[in-house]
C-alpha cells in the first residue's frame, strides 16, 4: 500500500518552476533515493512532502493511515545546528515533541523509546554528552535516533552523509539499511550516487524532466549515464 503518492505535482522555488507534473508513489517498505543535478528540486520536494511547501498544482496524498506528524525527518545540518547546546539525550527525545500535544513532561513510553533508539544507533554511552562536542558522524547518529522517535513508518533523510568521511558514510548507510529492513520506509535525498546500491527505487530529477522506477530500471536506463557518467554500469 502506498504511504505517499504524488499526482502531476508541480513545484516552484523562488518563483521558478523546478518540478513539473511529477507522479510517483512510495509503498510500505520501499527505500527511495532521490538524485539529480543541483537546482533540480530535490530539497523542494522534501519540503512539499513535509507540507512545508505548497504545490503550484497537482497533489500529494498520504496513505496507510500515515499522518503528517508521524513522518521522521533528518534535515541537512547548518553550522548553527551543529553547535546546538543540548545533551544527546535531550536532542533524541525531542523527536517525540510532535506527538506529545500539550503535555508538559515526557511520558515513560517516550523515555523508553528514546533509550531504545539510542541503543539502536549505538549512542547510549553518549547520552549525557553535549551534542556540539560530537563528531559529524556521531551527530548524524543522534539526529537519526531523534527522527526515529517521531515515526515507526517513514523517514525522510536530506543529504544524511554530507561532509562525512568514507568509513563513517558506509557505517551510516548500513544503519539506514538495517532500519529499512526492520520495516521503516526510507526516502533519501543524496548527491552520493553510491547510495543507490541500497535503494529499491530511484527518483531522478532533471531540470526539464524526471525518471521514476526500480533501481534495476534506473541502472539500465540512459538516465543513469546522465547522473553517473556511466560509472554505475562500469
Average pLDDT for all residues: 89
Tell how many strands the DSSP assignment holds: 9
Choose one word for the global shape: globular
The value of Rg in angstroms is 18 Å
Q: In order across it, which strands form the biggest sheet?
A: 5-6-7-3-8-9
Structural class: alpha/beta
The first-to-last residue Cα distance is 35 Å
Q: Per DSSP, what share of the residues sits in E-state strands of 2 or more residues?
A: 25-35%
Order of helices and strands: EEEHEEHHHHHEHEEEHH
Alpha plus pi helix count: 9
Largest sheet: 6 strands, mixed
Enumerate the spans where pLDDT stays under 50 for 5 or more consecutive residues. Answer: 230-234
Percent helix, as a range, is 25-40%
Task: Identify the notable features of this structure and list them briefly.
single chain; 234 residues; alpha/beta; six-stranded mixed beta sheet; three-stranded antiparallel beta sheet; 9 strands; globular
Describe the protein's architecture and organization.
With 234 residues, the protein is α/β, with parallel strands linked by helices. Helices cover 33% and strands 26% of the residues. The protein is built from 9 helices and 9 strands. The strands form 2 sheets. It has a 6-stranded mixed β-sheet, with helices on both faces. A 3-stranded antiparallel β-sheet has the order 2-1-4, with helices on one face. Strand 8 and strand 9 (210-214) form a beta hairpin.
State the gist of this model.
33% of the residues lie in helices and 26% in strands. The chain has 9 helices and 9 strands. The protein is globular.
